[in-house]
Amino acid sequence: MYPKRITGFSERALEWLESVQITSVKEASQISKALCLWGRDARKAIEWLQHARSGDHWESGNPVRDTARACAALMECGISCEGTVDWLEEMQSDSGSWNDDVYDTCYALIALGVMDRQNRQGLDWLLNNFSGKWMHPGTIALINSALIHQEVKGMADHIQRNSLWLLSQCTDDNWKYTATSCLVVQSLILDGRSWDVGGSLDWLVDRLEESEWKVSVVALVLITLKMYQDD
To answer: How far apart are CA 228 and CA 231, in angstroms?
Structure first.
């Protein structure tokens, strides 16, 4: 890791992120979180999110996932999202999942965890319905982040196995795609394994320096860099 290089890149990326045009709840959530983590002015993105809110949730093509993203981001910025907790819990099916979807369920559990709401039923659904189709680094990383955010006893072995599997899938400090690598590195940092991902930060910066910038990817990289710095 090269601190001056990382710092210089982050400054340029943050300035760029502050000026982009927001087009979705996902983008607004990621921008808000990235800017707030770095102590930058996130008012534009936060106002966009608050204006887009429909009552106690966010309407979109995927209201559960986007509501979870928006809530977690606003909480990161010090803005209460308590009114949405009940809505998220009401959307949980009797099976324990959200829409029988691993991604919706993970994002909902992460948001609830950020708001100090434990949801063992949702965790049990993830563990009891584990499928070979989920054996992808990005999916396993999200599952691990959900388990960690929920802070429920008895999850340590599951978390450790997932983290070791993720590390076994790493090639040349990355997991093939930028966004996937960010999700994996974030989950490993949450699991207290920052020492395993230092080289991945250089890879992430190299990857962005060599490609056209996309809002979601730049925000994810900035969030990842700051999580590592603060760990």
So the answer is: 5
